[in-house]
Queue: 4 jobs
Job 1
Amino acid sequence: MSGRTAMQRQVKVASNGALLEGVLSLPVPAAGLVLFAHGSGSSRLSRRNRSVADVLVDAGLATLLFDLLTADEERIDELDRSLRFDIALLGRRLIGAIDWVGRQPELRDLPIGLFGASTGAAAALVAAAARPEPVAAVVSRGGRPDLAPAALPLVACPTCLIVGGLDFEVLQLNRQSARRLTALHALQVVPGATHLFEEPGALEQAAHLACVWFLDHLAGARTEALS
């Protein structure tokens, strides 16, 4: 543990006419802010994303876990799964959240990282392409970057794709997507891990890789902004 103090509170993120429930964790000081875009059928309460967020906060990074869908939309999605793959909608919600952060006095000066899991990774890439100025880094965990093909060559920030070594189909899709990225990027394979990183130590390794990537690229962005 780092010993840093961290404030945590519930927030409501205003994004393109929707009010989204979120949890903000803000260590003092913070080197940057990472917004989490959860995957198919998940939410701000995702156990895996919360576990990764804890690692980031302990390293001095603020985190914002929030729902990409409203409560009514989640009920619809539970019935027909029509919204969890609506990458355009999820991307707009994440862009709106980035803009919301820019209106918060305590957050607006922090460089932004985006962490996307599964379909949330596609939304993160769409948002990074649309907001190249505040977004300084992207990490995808078990993500589907192939669902955002038009955004891939437009992403300007360093992007890390983390995939389980036994997640064969998604690994192949990530390799293909990586070839379309023009920004600095890396494909990190966690040996022995499947799609949900449920194997012992797999999620911890993915969280460590994400933390290193964000610290390298967000801390540097903050230094440049302050100089």
Note: The domain at 5-226 is CATH 3.40.50.1820 (Rossmann fold).
Job 2
Amino acid sequence: MKTYFPSDLKCVVLLGVDFDGPCHEVGRGIAPLGIHSWGRYSAKRGVPRHLEMFQRLGVPCTFFVPGYDAEQYPDLVKAIDSSGCEVAAHGYLHEAWEMPFEEEEALLRKTNDILGNLLGKQVLGWRSPSGRKSDRTMQVLKSMGYIYDSSDKDYDLPYRLRFSDGAGGTNNLIELPNNTYSLDDFPFYKFSHTPPSEVRDQWIDEFEHIYNSDGFFVLTVHPRSGWGSGTPSRSRAFEEVIRHIQQYDGVRFFSCAGFAQWCLANPHYLEEACHT
């Protein structure tokens, strides 16, 4: 019998939407036009479609938004926030390249300022674009007031991530690991071109096993067309997964920030890992 969470909380569900608009192409030096215009679909159709669905189903969600996309679509980012969903950071140009720490820090702070000024409040979390982190990334996030990271792939449960503060001491953030293969739309739609019905069945199967074991389900989608879940049939598959989950007892949907705050208030349920 698992005891990771209280008895009345059988399974935590976190839904994450990685905005990934035209920043994805612009960051690679590609004009987001013609065959490369997939990212523009996010703001035009994908995000509005997902927002409507979350409101209709009554579930929270976290949108991880790159700074460039927030600059291009400020009203939409404000609409995400006003809907009750969370806006978190996701790089500036969805950086997929190695960079010196000074450049990384400048981009982290740039996106934080863009989102904070746009929303009029503190951003609380970050998900790495393309999974890249340096040994000092967490120090910058902590200094900006972030309480969680959702980038690592090394565990099935949330944990306290302890790291050097750069001055001989330690700090910590809540780590919300995300599985970017079996619980992410990108590999299914980008590489294997899996039909939406099969993706739905895979995610439902993953949920049912997680519900009966660790009880921590983190699903990531992208509202782009092409390899994302913003189009009608893929959005429907996403909705069917949510509706299936809602049938189970003891399931609770959180935003990432909402659950990170729960973790901070209930640290005895978490393990701790050290990152150097």
Note: DSSP finds ten helices and ten strands in the chain.
Job 3
Amino acid sequence: MKDGTELIGGVEQREIVIVEYDPGWPARFAQEREKIATALGSTAIRIDHVGSTAVPGLPAKPIIDIDLSVNDIEDEATYLPALTDAGYCLRVRQPGHRMVRTVTLDAQVHVCQTGSDWETRHLLFRDWLRLNVADRVAYAALKRQLAARDWPDVNAYAEAKSPFIGEIVERAREWARSTDWSLPIEGQISGSPRGK
């Protein structure tokens, strides 16, 4: 692909299904977190629940998104074999990011470098949506609207959300600057809920 993205297994066409928030998603994340932590030990700097399944009340595809922060994303030998042995399959390789997923396609792990914009953006986006009702409702409506369309592949659906996600991230960055938001301790929210 033009941006250096490699899709292992090629393009996939799958039905996009958005379901109501499931209170069991945090427990599913905890299971995957334990599996990753056991496989990687201290190589895993952070393991965070991100994406829509990490936002109470937000409808989502029933796929648990996880951010895994490591010291050097390019040094795949330090994390990829252990993740593969734990049952994850490499799906995406791109500069600054790898994505592995379960064989059952119900969890995907986004590997990024600790301190990277990728790590910060995902955690900030999650925290903002947990606090800001208006953006949470608007994002849910957009996802439902887009899921009703036919897409050539799941990446096209994700790309269609990108402009609105970018707007949300800008509002979240403004909020972060106006509060004391910083990278939270795993599972916590930093800052205060201004701009609701």
Note: Helices lie at 25-40, 80-85, 117-131, 133-147, 154-178.
Job 4
Amino acid sequence: MGKGPESDASAKIIAAVLDLLDAEGYEAVQLRAVAAHAHVSLAKIYRLFPTRDELIIAALEQWMQVNTYAEVTVPGEDESVRDCLNRMLRTVFEPWERNPRMLEAYHYARTGPGGERLDSQGLAAVLPAAAVALRDLDPGYLHDLGLILGNMVLALIGRFATGALPSTEILPTLERTVYRLTADNTAEAARARPS
């Protein structure tokens, strides 16, 4: 959005949602509470964000852009695939470890209406850097790596959101997964590299 009253109202509403998510969690984001917190009318919220889902997704997109994706960078020339993947995972998950209610909100929002936007945002932020690190891998290995890591990420976040796993266990589990996928398959992973 551009400058002006609509942009100011939108920013206040998003800030209110982020405050509620951080302080009280996903269920606390009720439109009346947001309106009161942002000092705007319900009509203004509905005009800018037609549904609660849309509102939460917009807030999470902003939070993730600033906190989880802003520091994703391409790998250094001498950085191994394992080191690059682990660095990117740390970049994305360390902010969520410090803000577990945001991770919980992410889980519930991405599984609801419009949640694919959050997945798309993450892929758009991470894939350019990952593509550099993974460019020389065998395509079949690369496909399997993406499938396994993607499913592990979603499963671990889901276990966290249901209370079965502390948020601080997600990153170490993913790092062990990356180690197993890269260390135990070095010859397979390097097959496509020129001699």
Note: The chain is about 70% helix and 0% strand.
